[in-house]
Amino acid sequence: MNKIYQNNITQNIQKYIPTILLFISVLNEFDFNNLGYIYFSFNFSYILIFYYSLKKSESLGYVYIFIAGLFNDVVVGTPIGISSLMYLILCGAAAYLRNITLRPSLIKDSIFFLITILIINSLLFMYLSFVFSYELNYFDQIINIIYTFLLYFLFANLFIFFEKKILGNRHAG
Amino acid sequence: METSRDDFIIAIRSAFLKKGTKQRFSILSLIFFSIILLILSSFNFKVIDYVKKTINEIVYRSSFIVSGPENFLKENYFTVNRHLKLYEENKKIVDELNSLKRKDLSQKITILENIKYKKLIDDYFIEDNQVVAKVLIDRQSPFLRSIIINKGSKNDIKLGMVVLDEGYLVGKIVEVNFFTSRVLLISDINSKIPVSLQPGDIQAIMSGKEQQEGVLQYVRDKNLPEINEKIQVVTSGAGGLFKSGIPIGTIAIDDEILANNKEDKIVDFHRNYSQLKYVRVVSFSKEKIILDPLSKSNTTILNLEIEEVNQQQETLRILLEQKKIADEIRVRIQKENNFLRNEHIRLKQESGFLKIERTRLKNEILIIKKNNQKNKIQDEEIEFLKKNLFFGHKCRKNIINNLYKVGTPEYRKCVLKKGLKK
Questions:
Q1: Residue A160: CATH number of its domain
Q2: Mutate to test the interface with B, among A31, A74, A89 (most CBs of B within 10 A)
Q3: A85: buried, middle or exposed (CB in 10 Å: 19+, 13-18, 0-12)?
Q4: Residues of A in contact with B24 (CB under 8 A)
Q5: Structural domain range at position B375
Q6: Domain presence at residue B98
Q7: Which of A10, B41, B122, B181 is most buried by its number of CB atoms within 10 A?
Q8: CATH number assigned to the domain comprising residue B261
């Protein structure tokens, strides 16, 4: 009985690891979006949300993503609701890709991811610039998008490795 | 064509409307909810404001906890780093301390005089409220470089209060919650601060650029003064946002900047805004100048202090002047002393030489005297012999006369007198 209970706890922890990772990445001061380098920054949350919405949608609940977005807005200082909106659009895009894909491939996923982040960053930029009169740096945005796209390959492989080797999920990826 | 459009619609509908396994809401409903939140927050809806403040309080605290391990590692790293650089830093600090000590007194005078003159033009602000706060979250996003501090409206924090770190400007309060507040750093692109460049008193607006850099915009006088030192950037106090004279950073002027006369001048901040731990939140107000005994006595004390410091400065100046004169005299005396010493040595040498010369001359005179004497004797002898030839017979003793015997002094006298005469 005790063993079954322990297994349940482990399974639950394993199941919620992406959610925990998302909340840590949102709440932590260490922000990949701003590492202090001029030519290097990327959005880890985008990669995590897109990957898990695409491959394992049951791991990341939409409500959690929505709340993580709210938290991100509060921590970063952007208008409340904007990050949630962007995260959910990303989830929607991932869900759409999942529906239309018959044979999954990392290259196709990443290209779709690039298009999606280009769209959501443009939306974010327009909203912050025109509605809230924030001054944003185009160059930083482009650098961020490029590195987020490039690092998608690395993190996708890391997540596959994590799922296969640590969680023992043979169908991962 | 028709089929593919149907497929697209079906896929979109499925993605956005279907709840999916273990999902409680569809994406579309949550998107709508986000949009509503955004619209309401853009209109400053009160309910949203309360919701936001509640989330703020929860998130700031939880973010502080979540960032704990990372902050611990970061702090340890910086401690080790500082420890390794201790010796070099100590050397540097000792040098700096010595140079600063020298500057201290004149700076004191300048500050007191500055206060006096500011009071004269009614531009003197004093800190009327000061709160020391701890930095809870130091997450500088590309959109908004800001920090969260652990003091809020409960601790009398108000919007627009100035945030300082050891006297250097950090930013200002832009959001106040009950227990926490958000500080917009001056390194943020959205922060526009009226600044003044010293020396020259050039007015400009500074905006944030990088973590450690700001950029000057709208420089009124674009030609910066050609000085070797760095230009100091301080708040100008224009617009009444900040008190004037709060240090911000420096501008290094090199030949390239002067030659190109670039519009964007980069300001190097004095403080590193990624290393903030504790900050001081202050508000400034004008000192109440009421003619009450307390303010009067304060003014008198200030005047006395200025007087005292001025006297000290004057005494110091006189002492320095005296020292300078004494030094000059000492140098002159030393020079004269050297000259006299050399002269003395020279004269000594000369007197030795003269002594030798005198002895030589004495000897010569003696020789000449002897010679003269000899000559005189010889002359006398010659004269005697000459006269002897002529008058010898008149003095010589013979049978007939009874005169003088040859060779006797009487005979000699007789010959010299040219014969016997009575």
A1: 1.10.1760
A2: A74
A3: buried
A4: 61-63
A5: 290-422
A6: no
A7: B181
A8: 2.40.10.340
Query: How would you write the pLDDT of chain A (173 residues) with one tens digit per residue?
Result: 555 556 677 777 777 888 888 888 887 755 665 555 667 778 888 999 999 888 887 778 888 888 898 888 887 878 888 889 999 999 889 988 888 887 888 888 899 999 999 999 998 888 888 887 777 778 888 888 999 999 999 999 998 888 787 776 666 66
How high is the pLDDT of residue B1?
47
The answer to whether residue A172 is domain-embedded is no
Strands B192-198 vs B265-269: parallel, antiparallel or unpaired = unpaired
Question: Mutate which of B16, B29, B52, B139 to test chain A, going by most A C-beta atoms within 10 A?
Answer: B139
With CA atoms as reference, the chain A residue closest to B71 would be A29
Locate B113 and state its tokens.
């005089």
Q: What residue in A sits closest to B19 (Cα-Cα)?
A: A62
ipTM over 0.85: no
Question: Same domain, yes or no, for B267 and B299?
Answer: no
Chosen for mutation from B3, B7, B19, B27 (greatest number of chain A CBs closer than 10 Å) is B27
Give the number of domains in chain A.
Answer: 1
pLDDT band at B52 (very low <50, low <70, confident <90, very high): confident
- CB < 8 Å to A140, chain B: 142
Nearest residue to B184 via CA among B170, B196, B195: B170
List CB contacts (< 8 A) between A58 and chain B.
20-22
* Single residue among B244, B269, B288 that ends a domain in this structure: B288
Q: How many domains, chain B? A: 2
Closest by CA position to B274, among listed B206, B185, B192, B191: B185
How many DSSP H helices and E strands does chain B contain? 8, 12
pLDDT grade, residue B201 (50/70/90)?
A: confident
- Given CB atoms, is B409 within the 8 Å cutoff of chain A? no
Q: Report the C-alpha gap between B147 and A82 in whole angstroms.
A: 20
CB of A77 closer than 8 Å to CB of B182: yes
- pTM to 2 decimals? 0.52
